[in-house]
Amino acid sequence: QITLKESGPTLVKPTQSLTLTCTFSGFSLRASGVGVGWIRQPPGKALEWLGFIYWDDDEAYSPSLKTRLTITKDTSKNQVVLIMTNMDPVDTATYYCAHSRLTYDVFNGYNRKSRFDYWGQGTQVTVSS
Amino acid sequence: EIVMTQSPATLSVSPGERATLSCRASQSVSSNLAWYQQKPGQAPRLLIYGASTRPTGIPVRFSGSGSGTEFTLTISSLQSEDITVYYCQQYDNWPLTFGQGTRLEIK
Description:
The complex is a heterodimer. Chain A starts with a strand and ends with a strand. Chain A is globular, with a radius of gyration of 14 Å. In chain A, 0% of the residues lie in helices and 52% in strands. By secondary structure, chain A is mostly beta strands. By secondary structure, chain B is mainly β. Helix content of chain B is 0%, strand content 47%. Chains A and B meet through strand 12 of A and strand 9 of B.
């Protein structure tokens, strides 16, 4: 059974950095073709993809947030960490981490652009002074 | 960036009726399209991937179709627990993008 859970501060001040941890079970980030993504959802709004980290340490980020995001992993702890710098009130949202099983074909290898198979419950982050 | 447009924004359906939700991509995404269901206060749940494949455990009343730029999620016989919000997502191009959602409501 795959589960994920996000943790971190519920309130951050403008210009501060946000660090969120995703702790997961039921899969390994050492296994080929596995990724963990981050997605956020402002109150009452749609979902926005933030970034991905993969089993082979590769990363992918939303171009609009790339300069502010870092995603790392600790496979020994089954954790993925999201760091977002220079937080602003518009970054107020519920932040989700999610598991992805990448598709594979013999010509192109793993397709790192993926859907999200299992999601954490989300963690609410408010940016306010 | 590929823009995903869902229609209608709100759909009124009676229990037992068929619900048809649409998702349009601003350019072709092949079959790299997923649908999610999100209930209030909960995380999204994957309903469909590859435009038409149901993950294990998803009821058969949920089906997906389409390719290229036009996609449909059909709920064949609406149950009360299906009254919530649905999102589509393309994973053909960077950045990954989601639609704005369709909310189902009771007619």
